[in-house]
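Task: encode each sequence below as structure tokens.

Item 1
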Amino acid sequence: MVGEAPGEQEDVQGEPFVGASGQLLDAMLVAVGRTRHPGAPEQQVFIANALKCRPPGNRNPSTDEMQACRPYLLGQVALIKPRLVLALGRFAAQALLGRDEAIGRLRGGAHALADGTPVVVSYHPSYLLRQPLEKARAWEDLCLAVAVYEKAMIAA
């Protein structure tokens, strides 16, 4: 999974997705039989952020900041060799896919990285906390991610 950028609490705790966003993400993962905490390897997910540091004032990242961090993100993906990447939020999707498109155009289908790794795009948990009616679409995205992952596992 790839989030956008660390927030203030993530910087303090040194861990991605803490607070209410983290609680929602944990619940979403449990709903599909996964966890970000130590457990059975087939259930565990790895979480990274597209940006490696928090933009000042918690502002949106600039194009230059995203471009500066992109090689590190793609390097992480290359090291981990995931069967699927779930991009959470517009900036995560743009950093992974290298396309400046609205999340509404990117979600709902599977994309691929240059190496063929499938990418599914969904809303960031913090957005879902502000727009709870979008949780149904996020659930669709999560179900799509599971289906794409299972297909990749069968093909492997």
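Item 2
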Amino acid sequence: MEQPEGFEVSGDNLVQAKEKLVWSEAGTRQWYKKFDSCMKSQAYKKTTTDDCVYIQKFLDGDFVALLLYVDDILIVGKDATKINQLKKELSKSFDMKDLGSAQQILGMQIVRDRMNRRLLHLSRNILNECLKGSI
């Protein structure tokens, strides 16, 4: 590996940095493979449109969906028992911290309409525009 002209650094720092990057990528890939295997062992399937969204449909018509983004997980479903079972199984393989009901994900606020059993998400930009009266 050669350093760019004018940016020469003596010692092994550049090589060490590249090795750390490679190990980081490999570590991330291994972590995801382990996560994917754990989800499959619980009969969850990836959606065809996104490798980080898993769904399990149950015979009673219910479902549980899991969204994975970097190190955040959002789990949704009607049956708290099924959700808690998934959390329990995941916590056997991964260090997890349950933060309770989600307030936001990926910069979007989550709004619950418990009376009508709905979840809504609002982008901060859209929410701000609504508050300003622009929309």
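Check on item 2: The first helix runs from residue 13 to 41. The beta strands are 45-46, 53-57, 63-69, 72-77, 104-105, 108-113, 118-123.
End of task.
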